[in-house]
Amino acid sequence: MITRVVLALTLVSGPLTAAPVPLEARACPVAMPEGTRCGFLVVPERRDAPGTTIRVGYAVHRSDAPSGDPVVYMSGGPGSASIQLTGYLAALFPDRDVVTVEQRGSRFSKPTLGCPETVAAMLDRLRAPGADMARGARDCRRRHQEAGVDLRGYTTKEIAADVVDLRKALGYEKWNLFGVSYSTRVMVDAAAADPGGTAAVVLDSFLPQEVSWYGDADRNLDDTVAALGIDEDFEVMTGRLNDDPALVPTTDPLTGRAFTARLTGDDVATVLAEGLHDTSVIAAAPALVGALAEGHDELLRPLADQTGPGLASHEFGLYHAVQCQDEATFPDRSRLFTVNVDRAVCAEWRLPASKPTKASTKAPVLVLAGQYDPTTPPRTARPAAERLPHARFVEFAGVGHAVFLSDRCGARTIAAFLADPEGWKQPCDPSVRRLPAVRPGDLHVTGAPYQAMTAPWLAAPAALFVLASLAQLVTGAIRGRALTAFAGLTGLAFTGLAADAVWGLTKVNETALAVGVPRVLELYGWIAVGSALLTVAALARARTIPNSLAATVAAGFLVWWWSWFL
């Protein structure tokens, strides 16, 4: 049962700096490290029209030996959850209290502004062109209005005010603000509104207020594709699929049912714009896009499978409430369906545009950017950092979005900065690319490994071949049948070499397996052929049932290997 807590001294130590905002204790909604407590901050839904109150989720992890100001973290989105990262951040900052705060309306706040209606409409758009986004938007807004939600209260300004109120309620004199992507705007606003309570600010994947989210979206993707050196293949791929969309089997994240997505080139471009946030996808992108340009549509399956969960990961009611008020300007045309969807929702919701603000801070600021970030690129983050009075900018090679989650050097850089914001020195080399690029020709292109991972029974021929080879080796050795034993040994040698090659690729970049396998497997396949020939020779010498079974398994495996896997 939720209990109202007026003073938060039972959660954290530190003198109250202002009249407390009410807090409510709650059970943590996800697994947390020991020493973590969760709660709700109770605030007005609209501070300009007090009356209705809402609850903003948060978690506090107390350090066993705090030696510095706490860190408060918020995820991006808008609409992404934060609390689930408490354990990771507690390990990153072991000598500080860590506070993770949700955005109002997010998954671990109340109310939660989900919008399955618009998610369903977006998925319908992938089933067939002409899906009615306006209807989904109307249904979502009507449902929230009937529940008493005033969407005008869900803006960056209000979310930033929640951060300030939480510091006061928890009783911290000062803390360090840590935002990523969208929430960098929140943290800059919070620092400007609460200068006395801000020790330092970390802005990872900085999205400056003056940058047009939608106006820059197409250019950001084009720039990233060009920087990766895949622009020609990218245009061939998108042009081919726009002319002849691919039909790709995938799963509806809302119902769990299988359906067939119809992916145009622009749809694939949109999915890649999100996928290129991930450093492993960036490294595999040259090989992936090159293969898609050549017509390997089987590689679209993993992209389609990630689209649904990606759409379900945000609370789109909150996302669109913020975007439709704070990002009211749209380009006339975009190749990205996310931009076009947002335009349709905002046209239907007709929320008032927020008044633009020019927030800044005099606190020390660290700005981190990924070299290939397709959403908040260094092109816009660097000059914005230079306009902040006490900011330092660091770009990380080979990295995409959310540097602290993608790059160990990025995480170490943040920890070193907060340890000494004024005398900070870079603890590692950000110019070193951690993952090497996978180029066209580095892999044998095949969608089989991904399909086998999603449906393990597809790998049954390989498992049977291994078992048959092991049985041949053992029985041949016991009964003194050298040919049979050597056939089994050869089959196991093939298995070991192939497994080692695949494992080596997995250790470097597991995502690359969604594109293909090491080319050396083509050579290793001939070892399997040798094993099969030895098995046939053993069968010719002794027509026994075990030899017949081994020969049948070997023949089936070779058909599977050469016609399906490779």
UniProtKB/TrEMBL annotation:
Residue span, AB hydrolase-1 domain: 70-206
Signal peptide from the UniProt entry: 1-18
Listed transmembrane segments: 455-475, 482-503, 523-540, 547-565
GO cellular component: membrane
Keyword Membrane recorded: yes
Organism superkingdom: Bacteria
UniProt source species: Nonomuraea dietziae
Any one GO molecular-function label of the UniProt entry: catalytic activity
Residue stretches making up the Peptidase S33 tripeptidyl aminopeptidase-like C-terminal domain: 343-422
Record flagged with keyword Secreted: no
Name of the molecule in the record: Pimeloyl-ACP methyl ester carboxylesterase
